[in-house]
From TrEMBL:
<keyword id="KW-0255">Endonuclease</keyword>
<keyword id="KW-0238">DNA-binding</keyword>
<dbReference type="InterPro" id="IPR000214">
    <property type="entry name" value="Znf_DNA_glyclase/AP_lyase"/>
</dbReference>
<dbReference type="GO" id="GO:0003684">
    <property type="term" value="F:damaged DNA binding"/>
</dbReference>
<feature type="domain" description="Formamidopyrimidine-DNA glycosylase catalytic">
    <location>
        <begin position="2"/>
        <end position="103"/>
    </location>
</feature>
<dbReference type="InterPro" id="IPR015886">
    <property type="entry name" value="H2TH_FPG"/>
</dbReference>
<comment type="similarity">
    <text>Belongs to the FPG family.</text>
</comment>
<keyword id="KW-0227">DNA damage</keyword>
<dbReference type="GO" id="GO:0000703">
    <property type="term" value="F:oxidized pyrimidine nucleobase lesion DNA N-glycosylase activity"/>
</dbReference>
<dbReference type="InterPro" id="IPR035937">
    <property type="entry name" value="FPG_N"/>
</dbReference>
<keyword id="KW-0511">Multifunctional enzyme</keyword>
<keyword id="KW-0479">Metal-binding</keyword>
<dbReference type="InterPro" id="IPR010979">
    <property type="entry name" value="Ribosomal_uS13-like_H2TH"/>
</dbReference>
<dbReference type="InterPro" id="IPR015887">
    <property type="entry name" value="DNA_glyclase_Znf_dom_DNA_BS"/>
</dbReference>
<keyword id="KW-0863">Zinc-finger</keyword>
<keyword id="KW-0456">Lyase</keyword>
<dbReference type="GO" id="GO:0140078">
    <property type="term" value="F:class I DNA-(apurinic or apyrimidinic site) endonuclease activity"/>
</dbReference>
Length: 267
């Protein structure tokens, strides 16, 4: 699932490939944009904002996309086979003489004036990887609803932008509380350390495709709890638990260690 570090890397790869070059192909395959043609315009920048991608083109226009759960942008050289999925999953094609960017399974794709970008990203809190990062403001927003469970508060992009389900679970583990622990009951020093840790982890992972929160570089130890249902905790050996029904966890469930993390948990 794309999170802030994944979007940052995607934006920088797209920027390197497209920025400063004229579009020789433009194909936006959603009904409301079916007649839009950006051919002949230069891409001026591709900018990440939280989990949003803003592709700016000449003429004061921005193509706004959001990957949600399984969307993706892929880059291809001329003549290279497209391997991101079947053709019916393609939602956008932006091509230059050197590279072609193909957007697959994009649940959000819209064209707006660049001046109107705040209408789609203005609600976001401080961006963990953005130039507007403000740790104090992020802490203030995180604690604005003291009764709210930590996991919900971390996922709320209005508090701080860029955290998804993976980092939610990992940050709760590092804070030694469950994702259902009320943020207002956290020890006084924890929110500030939690926000600083979130920033550090996204910074460390933004340049690589394989996300890691466990230090040491071991190939068999990348994440503390996420995706590790039933496996032993690296700290105490207890089996990692997850919430949700069924025998197998899904992408949106929470993972936690019942020994290392204190606080409420589902029955």
């Amino acid at each position: 699932m794309p999170e802030g570090d994944t979007i940052w890397l995607a934006a920088h790869r797209l920027h390197d490939a497209l920025a400063g070059r004229l579009l020789t192909r433009s194909d936006l395959r959603v009904p409301r944009l079916a007649t839009v043609d950006l051919t002949g315009r230069a891409v001026t920048a591709v900018v990440p904002r939280g989990k949003h991608l803003l592709t700016r083109v000449e003429g004061g226009l921005t193509l706004h996309s959001h990957l949600r759960m399984d969307g993706a942008w892929k880059l291809y050289a001329p003549g290279e086979r497209w391997r991101g999925g079947p053709g019916h999953e393609i939602r956008a094609i932006l091509g230059t003489a050197e590279r072609t960017a193909v957007g697959y399974r994009l649940p959000v794709l819209e064209l707006l004036r660049t001046a109107d970008e705040p209408t789609v990203v203005g609600h976001l809190g401080p961006d963990l990887l953005g130039p507007d990062w403000d740790a104090d403001e992020a802490v203030r927003r995180l604690l604005s609803d003291p009764a709210r469970p930590l996991g919900e508060a971390l996922l709320d992009q209005r508090n701080l932008a860029g955290i998804g389900n993976v980092y939610k679970c990992e940050l709760a583990f590092l804070a030694r509380v469950t994702p259902w622990f009320p943020v207002g009951d956290l020890p006084a020093d924890v929110p500030e350390r939690l926000v600083a840790t979130a920033r550090r982890l996204l910074e460390e992972n933004k340049d690589r495709f394989e996300r890691r929160t466990v230090p040491g570089g071991r190939s068999d130890r990348k994440l503390y709890v996420y995706g590790r249902a039933r496996r032993p905790c690296y700290r105490c050996g207890a089996p990692i638990r997850w919430d949700g029904g069924g025998d197998q966890p899904t992408d949106r469930v929470s993972y936690w260690c019942p020994r290392c993390q204190s606080g409420p948990a589902p029955a």
